[in-house]
Amino acid sequence: MKEKLFYSVTYGLYMISILVLTQLIIFNKVDLATLIGAIIGISLVMPLVLASDIYKKEKYNIFTKEYLIQFSSLIIAFILIRLFVSSDYRIYPMMVIVVILITYEIIKRRKKKKLEN
Predict the structure, then answer these.
(1) Cα 79 off chain centre by
(2) Engineered SS bond to 25: which of 64, 78, 116, 117, CB 3.0-4.6 Å?
(3) d(CA 59, CA 14)
(4) What share of the chain is helix, strand, coil (3-state, %, to 5)?
(5) What is the tens place of the pLDDT at every residue in 21-60?
(6) Are 85 and 93 in contact (CB under 8 A)?
(7) CA atoms within 13 A on the CB side of 44
(8) Is the separation of the CB atoms in 53 and 65 below 8 Å?
(9) Which range of residues forms the domain containing residue 13?
């Protein structure tokens, strides 16, 4: 149970840090209401994750090579967007990054399902 709690807390902090970094890059400030809403949402979801029998260590362990590469590439993308895109148009490259991450996750899940079958 301690391992589940550790990985769920670190995964929650990972999601909150991405939220804060995104807000800092796009808007140059952190919206407190959004941050509080995210913390409340994550604190409501994590007990459900801990209670489920489908818990997998690999899914929530952010210290794997894949998560660290994804996080570092996200930070590099944020820095490049901050340097080369004016503040009026920063939301558009961020939307492209989100779409790329979502399609990557969908492709990864489909490959896992094919391997399981």
Answers:
(1) 17
(2) 78
(3) 13
(4) 85, 0, 15
(5) 878 877 778 878 877 887 887 777 777 766 665 656 666 6
(6) yes
(7) 6
(8) no
(9) 2-116
Question: Whole-structure pTM over 0.70, yes or no?
Answer: no
Closest to 49 (Cα-Cα) out of 9, 20, 105 = 9
- Cα-flanking dihedrals φ and ψ of residue 86, to 5°? -70, 160
Q: At 52, is the secondary structure helix, strand, or coil?
A: coil
Token pair belonging to 108:
């990864």
pLDDT tens for residues 8-20? Answer: 777 778 888 888 8
Question: SS in 3 state form for 43-78?
Answer: HHHHHHHHHCCCCCHHHHCCCCHHHHHHHHHHHHHH
Split into its structural domains, the chain has a count of 1
C-alpha span between 57 and 77 (Å, rounded): 28
Lookup: tokens for 14 = 């990972």
